[in-house]
Amino acid sequence: MSDLTRNAVDVLPEGRLTEQLESGKTLRVKLGIDPTTADIHLGHTVVLEKLAEFQRAGHRVVLIIGDFTAQVGDPSGRSATRPVPTAAEIEANAATYQEQAFKILDREKTEVRRNSEWLRMEPEALLGLLAQTTVARLLERDDFQKRMAAAQPIAALELLYPLLQGYDSVAVEADLELGGTDQKFNLLFGRDVQAAYGRTPQSIMTLPILVGTDGERKMSKSLGNYVGVTDPPEEMFGRLMSIPDEAMAEYYRLLLGFERPEGPPNEAKRELGRRIVDRFHGEGAGAAAEEHFNRVHVQHEAPEEMPDVDLGEFGSGGNGLVHMPRLIAGAFGVSSSEGRRLLQQGGVKLDGEPVPAEPLDREAASLDGRVLQVGKRRFCRLRATP
């Protein structure tokens, strides 16, 4: 029991999970994830690792991909209504989330469900669900209280979110639901919905929310302070090296499961980076990423390996010139306007030297074989078409 509750913030109702575990029953342990963005980051893995612990202890993990609830929008931690992704975005993200979750969970022992299976209800069933609560109860959550106090809008759909997530627990017969501390209202509300449908209410467990690489706000792709589980090894290591020293203890505890080692902060951070990169890219990947980091950021040299980019794709009117914003966009997956902005801000280098914002067009021959760099960690070698 003590191992399974390690790092937990809330385990409610008090004593209930102990009773469930001591009964010897195989628990159905639920986690719901709404596929609102394209990738899972290290913040998501805190709860996924806890799921994996229950899985290793012999319990049944139920991973719910919230393809229906993603259309509603979870108001947890939001000061404004969340933009709703398109159906195509949700579908693409759902496939990505599932595959990335299996970097941590045992694929063969995980029950994966999409809540569109049961939430595309007939009107009678939906009205029956709506009848299980009151608006006053839904408005109790802190997020809504803060928005009402600030005279900010609350979409009617957002009021439905706890009901829909709670019905997920009914549909999959959850014994225990996990989530971040920002999900406490939703998880407890799931107990109310289960009871309304004559089911035994689930226990809930909340886990800390990992701070982002800025050391201040929760890790989030929209804030740019995240480390994605599919980031290239060099990118992952570099991002981890950027976290403030004060955040390292939390990263060690929540991501590695032990306390930060004594010693210089830089060495502890490097060990953290190596271990995390090895976890997601295989043994030895962390050491290789560290070597890359040393070459680029300590010795200020270009990496040994980098992609080649054909300059012929970014010409300016077939006159042997290359349009730099278009080249930057194509080489690094940004927009042409972003490429122009990077040039204006001095964020682009050729062979380690800043590239002037003007002229925008340069001779392809003068770029052949040179290393183009954007930011601290993105490089490519330019090749002129023969």
What is the strand and helix layout of this fold?
Elements: E1 10-12, H1 16-22, E2 28-33, H2 42-56, E3 60-65, H3 87-101, E4 110-114, H4 116-119, H5 123-130, H6 135-138, H7 142-149, H8 156-172, E5 176-180, H9 184-196, E6 203-207, H10 233-241, H11 248-256, H12 265-281, H13 285-298, E7 308-310, E8 321-323, H14 324-332, H15 336-344, E9 348-350, E10 353-354, E11 361-363, H16 364-367, E12 371-374, E13 378-383
Parallel strand pairs: 2-3, 2-5, 3-4, 5-6, 7-13
Antiparallel strand pairs: 1-6, 8-11, 9-10, 9-12, 12-13
Helix pairs in contact: 8-9, 10-12, 10-13, 11-12, 12-13, 14-15
Plain-language structure description:
- The protein has helices spanning 16-22, 42-56, 87-101, 116-119, 123-130, 135-138, 142-149, 156-172, 184-196, 233-241, 248-256, 265-281, 285-298, 324-332, 336-344, 364-367; strands at 10-12, 28-33, 60-65, 110-114, 176-180, 203-207, 308-310, 321-323, 348-350, 353-354, 361-363, 371-374, 378-383.
- It is of the alpha/beta class.
- A hairpin with a 2-residue loop joins strand 9 and strand 10.
- Helix 10 packs antiparallel against helix 12 (265-281), helix 10 (233-241) packs across helix 13 and helix 11 (248-256) packs parallel to helix 12.
- The mean pLDDT is 88.
